[in-house]
Amino acid sequence: MNQDNQLSIQIKDLELIKSESGKVVLNHNAEQFLKDLLELQTKVEETLVICKQKIQEAMEAEDFELSSINTDNLKIMNRVYGSKYSLDKNVIDYVDKKFYEPVVSFKILTDEVDKYIKEKGSNPEGITPNLRTKTLSISLKGKKENETI
Amino acid sequence: MKRFRTSFSILNAWASGNKEGAIDMFFKRNLVKTEQMSDGIAFHDKWATYILKNKEIPQELSTKPIKLTDPKPELKLEVDLGDNFQFVGIIDCLDGETIYEFKTGRSNSSDYANGKQIDCYAYLLSKLGIKTTKGIYLHYNQYEKNADKSLVYLTDNRLKTAEKWILDYTSDMYKYLVKTKQI
Questions:
Q1: Whole-model pTM?
Q2: Cβ within 8 Å, pair B114-A75
Q3: Do B76 and B160 touch, CB atoms closer than 8 A?
Q4: B142 in Cβ contact with B43 (< 8 Å)
C-alpha cells in the first residue's frame, strides 16, 4: 500500500481495518493497516490545512468582506469568532470597573474530597463523582503530540 | 376559493416553531415596529433610491464597488402555487442572474445564508421563467459601521429544496388554520 510516495487506502480496506484492528492487541504485526491509516490521516489533514489557506486567500482577494460561500454540499465560512476584547488581569486594578464584571469560578480540591470519602465512606454534600470513560489514543512514533488521535 | 397567501417571513416564523408570530403576521395583527425594524426600512428605502440612481450597490453594503447592469430594486413577486396557494415576496434587488438581499443589525450575513430566503426567491423567479444563478446577502451593521457578505450558489438542488420547504410549510400552516377555524 505504501510505496514510491504512494499512500492509498481503499474503502474496502477501511472496512477491513475496522473489523481487524483489535488484533493489534495480541499481534503487533497487525499494525501495518493502522500505521497506513494514521499516515493517510496526517496527509489529509495537511492537505486540508493548505486548501483552507488557499480558499481564505482567494476569498479575501475577491472581496475582503466576503464572509461565507454556500454551495450544494459545502458551507465555507471566513469570519472572526470569540470575544472581541481581552482583559489584562495583570493590570486589573487600573481597569475601569464599568468595562468588566468579575466571574466567580470554582475548582474541586480532589485530594480533599478523596480524603473525606475515605474517612466517611460517602460523598461530601453537593459533590458527586463523575462517570469517566477511558479514551484510547494511537500515535505514530516520532510524530508530535498533537498528531495523536 | 380565495388563495391562501404567505410570504417568506410568515413561513420562516412558522418553520422555526413560532406559530403565534406567523399567524399574527398572516392576519397583520399585533404588528409592533421595533427601532431595529424602522432602521431597516429606512435603510432599504435609501438603498433602493441609491441603486436606481447610481446603478451600483451602496458603499455601506460593500466597500468593494459592485456595479449593476439592469437593477430592479424592491422587486415585488406574487406567484401562484397550484390552485390554492400564493407566495408573495419583495426582492431587495435583482440584477441579471443575481439576487441581492440586504440586511441590517448585528447578525452576520452568513447567519442569513444558512436560511432559505434567497433560495425561495430564486424558486419563485424560476416559476416566472427568470433564471438566477447566485444570491448575495449583503449585511450592514449600522452600530459598528461595518459590512460583510455571503454568497449562495443557486443550484437546482437548492431550488428543489426551497420548493419543498415552501409547499410543506404553506400546506402545514393552511391545514392548521382550517382545523382551528381561523380561516
A1: 0.82
A2: yes
A3: no
A4: yes
Collapsing DSSP states into helix, strand and coil, what is residue B157? helix
The alpha carbon of A135 is separated from its chain's Cα centroid by a whole number of angstroms, namely 13
pLDDT tens for each residue of B82-126? 888 999 999 999 999 999 999 999 999 999 999 999 999 999 999
Query: Is residue B14 within 8 Å of residue B172, measured between CB atoms?
Result: yes
How far apart (Å, rounded) are the C-alpha atoms in residues B183 and B181? 5
Q: Which residue has the cell 416564523?
A: B13
Residue B67 pairs with which residues in a beta bridge? B56
Tell me the C-alpha distance between B89 and B99, whole Å.
Answer: 13
How far, in Å, CA of B118 to CA of B134, rounded? 9
CA distance B55 to chain A (A): 19
Binary contact (B110, A72; C-beta < 8 A): no
Closest-approach residue (CA) in chain A for B157: A72
Which grid coordinates belong to A14? 477501511
pLDDT tens digits, one per residue of B27-44: 998 778 888 888 899 999
- Distance to chain B for A11, nearest Cα, Å: 27
